[in-house]
Amino acid sequence: MATRQVLADLVSAYEQRSGVQVQIESVGGVDAAKRVMADEPFDLVVLASDAIDKLLAAGKLVAGSQVDLVHSGVAVAVRAGAARPDIGSEDAVRSAVLAARSLSYSTGPSGVALARLFDRWGIAGQIQDRIVQAPPGVPVGTLVARGEVELGFQQLSELLHVEGIELLGALPAEIQIVTTFSAGVCASATQPGAARELIAFMASPAAAEAKRRQGMDPA
C-alpha cells in the first residue's frame, strides 16, 4: 500500500507515453505476496525488497528480473488539532511513545522494525497494551484521523494524503527506518516483455520526480 499512489502516477505517465494500458491492483504487502506465491496470474509485482527476495527464492519470479524502485522512510502523525510532541531526536521519540495513550504502526517491514526498536529501548512490554495494530491494507493514518490512535507511525507516502491528521515529520536519522521497494516479473506472467518495459520505465530518471512528490526517494 505504501507504493499505491506512486505506482498510480507512474503507470499513468507510462500509459501516456506508450499507449499501453496497465491495470494495477493495490493490496497489503502480505496479501500480495501470498497471491503471487499461490500462482495468481500477475505480470509483475512491487513489494518490499525482502518479500521480493523470498518470491525469487521460491521460483515465483523470473530470475534476474528484480529491480529496486524507491526508498521509503517512516514518518509520525497525530490527529489534526492534537498536541504535537517533539520527535527531533531518538530520546524525544522514546518519550513521545511512552507518553502516548495509544499508538499504531503497520504490519509491513516498517512495523516489524519499529517493534524491534521498542524492544531495544526496553519498553516493548510497557507499551504492549497501548498498541493498536492496523489491519493489512488499512492506513495507520486513518486510525489516527478517527481518534482511535494518538500517535501513528507509517511510511511518509502513506500519510501524505490522509485527511484529518498532522504530520510531525520523519523519524530522526539515528532511528529512521528505510524500506526499499522493488519490482519483479512474475513466473506466471503472460506478458513478461511488457512487464520488463514497464519496470524499466519505473526505474528510469523520468520517474524520479513522481517518486519524490509521493514522499519517496529514487532507488
Describe this structure in words.
It is a single chain. The protein is of the alpha+beta class. It is 40% helix and 19% strand. It has helices at 4-18, 29-37, 49-57, 90-99, 109-121, 124-127, 140-145, 156-159, 192-202, 208-213; strands spanning 44-48, 67-79, 103-104, 151-155, 165-170, 178-185, 216-218. Strands 1, 2, 3, 4, 5, 6 and 7 form a 7-stranded mixed β-sheet that branches. The mean pLDDT is 95.
List keywords for this structure.
219 residues; alpha+beta; 7-stranded mixed sheet; 10 helices; 19% strand; elongated
Number of separate helices = 10
Distance between the termini: 18 Å
- The tally of beta strands, per DSSP, is 7
SSE topology string: HHEHEHEHHHEHEEHHE
Largest sheet, in brief, is:
7 strands, mixed
Helix amount: 25-40%
pLDDT < 50 stretches: none
Q: What fraction of residues sit in β-strands?
A: 15-25%
Instruction: Name the average pLDDT.
Output: 95
Q: In angstroms, what is the radius of gyration?
A: 18 Å
Structural class: alpha+beta
The coarse overall form would be elongated
List the helices and strands and how they pair.
Blueprint (H helix, E strand, L loop, with lengths): L3 H15 L10 H9 L6 E5 H9 L9 E13 L10 H10 L3 E2 L4 H13 L2 H4 L12 H6 L5 E5 H4 L5 E6 L7 E8 L6 H11 L5 H6 L2 E3 L1
Parallel strand pairs: 3-4
Antiparallel strand pairs: 1-6, 2-4, 2-5, 2-6, 2-7
